[in-house]
Amino acid sequence: MSQVKPFIPMQGASILACMLACLLAGALPIAHSAQGDLMGGVGQFAVQPRKERVIRQVRPKLSALSVPVGGPVGGKTKPEVKRVKIDYDARLMEAAAKGDAAGVEDAITSGASIEAKNSDGCTPFLFAVSSEQKEMSQALLARGANYAARCKDGTTALTLAAEDGDTAFVNDLIARGADVNAKTEDARTPLMLAAMGGHETVVRALLAKRADVNAKYKDGRTALIFAAANGREGVVKLLLDNGAEVDAKPDDGWTALFWASWFGHGSIAKELVARGAAINGRDRDNDTALMKAATQGHAAIVEFLLAQGAEASSRGNGGGTSLLFAAGRGHAEIVEALLAKGADVNAKNSAGMTPVIQAAGYGRVSTVQYLLDKGADINAQNNKGFTALMAAANGGLAQTVRVLIAAKADLNAKYEDGRTALTFAVQNGHDKIIELLREAGAKE
After folding, report:
1. Which residue in 51, 43, 83 sits closest to 66, CA to CA?
2. Which tens digits make up the pLDDT trace of 113-162?
3. Which helix (H) or strand (E) holds 270?
4. Which of 63, 254, 256, 384 has most Cβ atoms within 10 angstroms of its Cβ?
């Protein structure tokens, strides 16, 4: 397994930015003079998670078995041969990692140190544990190997055993005196790793020995957040029962409820709310858990949060609302639930986008029709004068164009530079759209 990565560089990016990237790549052609501009600016969608749901554990890397030393042997006319010195410490590490008892015995007999360390500071015992060689791990302990040995990055046998969910070995190490709160250089703890993997019995064992339930990873995430993000309901309850902070906020503000809402873990979201999680809490981008669930299309969680008092019309990053997010993704059931709770069907974000423009621009035909039925302004314009009809015409979305024409959209509304829906269709070569608009009486 590889080292924890500094989490993935979508910081500050929005789903819209990703969509626009697709647009520019050809998924939804737009005129060159308006690329990246027609559908508004950053902040129309709740941001994606900038971090993975897991902590990846370091696994020790073996050193080379041997290194060449010395120079040519014999006279100048003979082929050059390098003398080789066997590195028995390295051989011991490799044998330990493979569970090779004979190899271990041979290396130790030849002078290898049981506490030898490779360049990362890891011992043969840690190699055996890392490779899940249980018999070898016990054999090395019986020979006097240090159960508390640490690699340079702070990895211990307990760290590895907790991640692997090896309850028996975890208990053995704890009984020997292993530090349940040992931290790696980036602040991983055994409890975080066990929680992430859903290893309830290991979590219980660690908590029984006073593992810090609210210890923080380098970005502020806790064991509870990792458990919630990964859908580990049993561990979530166990951690909460033992004093985990339900609204612990990491650097990005994504609490356990945000992660559960984003990934659709409904039962965990309910448990967190029952334990006092803030329904309308905000992350660093000013978004709410409701916005995350609406963006991802988790209707059951949206309905639950609304029933628990989530604000249907709250505004987040860039003035976006849950309705805008859901409309652009075509989540019809969520759109209906939000409108039923009083969400403004014509609310605009900071770029002037409305739900119907957003839905039209991505060809969400049924959502467009439903929004119109609920009073959406068919001719609403964003800050540049872009309308739902322009959005559909620009994208070559014939079915959406038909719906908008039938609903009496203004055929000749003008973008800020004077272009109309027909102009956009002509510029992008959408012959079917051109035909539909001209038949309806549109002008360039």
Report:
1. 83
2. 999 999 899 999 999 999 999 999 999 999 999 999 999 999 999 999 99
3. helix 266-274
4. 256
Q: Which residues of 338-351 are buried (b: 16+ CB within 10 A; e: fewer)?
A: bbebebebebbbbb
Which amino acid makes up residue 148?
A: A
CA angle 308, 312, 315 (to 5 degrees): 125
Between 4 and 216, whose confidence is greater? Answer: 216
The residue-averaged pLDDT of 25-43 equals 43
Q: Annotate 82-98 with DSSP letters as a single string.
A: -EEEE-HHHHHHHHHHH
The predicted model gives 195-215 an average pLDDT of 97
**Whole-angstrom Cα distance, residue 173 to residue 170?**
5
Q: How far is CA 315 from CA 103, 286, 289, in A?
A: 65, 8, 12
Choice among 33-42, 52-61, 99-108 with the minimum mean pLDDT: 33-42
The per-residue DSSP string of 191-228 comes to HHHHHHHT-HHHHHHHHHTT--TT---TTS--HHHHHH
Which range has the worst mean pLDDT, 76-90, 194-208, 386-400? 76-90
Q: Which residues fall within 8 angstroms of residue 274, CB to CB, at 6 or more apart?
A: none
Cα–Cα distances (Å) from 78 to 71, 72, 81, 274, 283, in that order, read: 12, 9, 9, 82, 72
Q: Which residues contact 392 (CB under 8 A, 6 or more apart)?
A: 360, 361, 363, 400, 401, 404, 421, 433
Sign of the dihedral defined by the CA atoms of residues 214, 217, 222, 227, in that order: negative
| Closest CA relative to residue 299, chosen from 277, 269, 273 | 269
* Integer Cα distance of 284 and 132 in angstroms: 40
Nearest to 215 by CA among 236, 244, 255, 251: 244
pTM, two decimal places: 0.85
> Would you place residue 80 in the very low, low, confident or very high pLDDT band (cuts 50, 70, 90)?
low
C-alpha 417/C-alpha 410 separation (Å) is 17
Q: What letters, b where the CB count within 10 A reaches 16 and e where it falls short, cover 296-319?
A: bbbbbbbbbbbeeebbbebbbbbb
Q: Which residue has the higher pLDDT, 27 or 318?
A: 318
Nearest 5°: phi and psi at 135? -65, -40
Q: Which has the minimum average pLDDT: 73-82, 133-142, 146-155, 166-175? A: 73-82
Can you read off the two tokens belonging to residue 292? Answer: 């995350």
Per-position DSSP letters for 407-441, written without gaps between them = TT--TT---TTS--HHHHHHHTT-HHHHHHHHHHT
